[in-house]
Design a protein that fits this description.
- This protein is 40% helix and 15% strand.
- The chain contains 10 helices and 8 strands.
- Strands 1-2-3-4-5-6-7-8 form an 8-stranded parallel β-barrel, surrounded by 5 helices.
- Helix 9 (243-249) packs across helix 10.
- It starts with a strand and ends with a helix.
């Protein structure tokens, strides 16, 4: 079975869903990973497809014309005071477009609250046939593999999953061997990128690299092959924001380089890691 790749929203940050879909098709991706949940960040466009019928129509057309499929949507954040029912329209839209998963992360230290809300999010997603995949982020409240496993073991929802981002895994100082004890059924997809091996001392520098300066796979110092070699075969969503390269190359060429570097890396490491 051929390896499958998705173009993640942050890789082409600010690109509208229809254009993103055509770019993905041109570059050779199988899927797109969209952000139809508006997060209200400074300068961020609102691509809430459930609120914009014309944008939804254009996105449907792009998916139909290219054959690219929607893989997952983001980002269903669990934060203080959140009402996860607000994510229902986006999940309904994802199901309508044939999506598989909802990406989530946790940004409140209140364990009782986030366990309750993550479980509720899973229950809301289940009728749409969607998994809810928890991403641990080194600058968030649930920041490492141990914390994410605690959530999944506590909620015990069939459609709950664990989403490993190679950048975040390395920055959270997790041990690659720990992945071997994780239930295989929890893995539905993974985020793929690279970064310098040295872990930034400050949260500010960690955040800067995370949001705007990740590297092409094989260009940095993360043991990407070691991480992925402990996962089952899943689609790889390339989440590789790099502001300077997008400015230099444009969305389409940056997306192409992301995919080509990933394929080259897999080809170079396939034997040693049993890919």
């Amino acid at each position: 079975m051929a390896r499958q790749f998705s173009l993640a929203y942050l890789t082409v940050l600010g690109c509208p869903p229809p254009e993103m879909t055509y770019i993905a098709a041109q570059a050779g991706y199988d899927y797109v990973s969209l952000r139809p949940i508006y997060m209200g960040l400074p300068g961020e466009p609102n691509y809430a497809l459930n609120e914009n019928k014309e944008l939804m129509r254009q996105t449907k057309t792009a998916l139909a014309e290219t054959g690219v499929k929607l893989h997952d949507i983001e980002l269903a954040r669990i934060h203080d005071g959140v009402d996860v029912k607000k994510y229902l329209p986006a999940m309904e839209m994802a199901a309508e477009l044939g999506g598989c998963a909802v990406l989530s992360s946790i940004w409140t230290p209140d364990r009782k609250f986030y366990i309750e809300k993550f479980a509720e999010l899973c229950d809301l997603a289940k009728p749409f046939g969607l998994t809810v995949d928890l991403e641990f982020v080194p600058i968030a409240s649930v920041f490492d593999l141990k914390g994410a496993i605690d959530v999944l073991r506590t909620v015990q929802r069939e459609n709950a999953g664990l989403m490993v981002d190679t950048h975040h895994f390395h920055r959270s100082r997790d041990k690659i061997e720990e992945l071997e004890a994780v239930p295989r059924g929890w893995f539905h997809f993974a985020h793929l990128c690279d970064a310098p091996a040295e872990i930034p001392a400050s949260k500010e520098e960690m955040t800067r690299i995370l949001r705007e300066a990740r590297l092409y796979v094989g260009e940095g110092g993360i043991d990407v092959a070691g991480i992925l070699g402990r996962l089952p075969e899943v689609p790889y969503s390339i989440e590789l924001p790099h502001v300077a390269r997008v400015k230099e190359f444009g969305y389409a060429e940056h997306a192409r380089r992301c995919l080509q570097s990933a394929k080259d890396y897999f080809a170079a490491h396939s034997r040693e890691q049993n890919f």
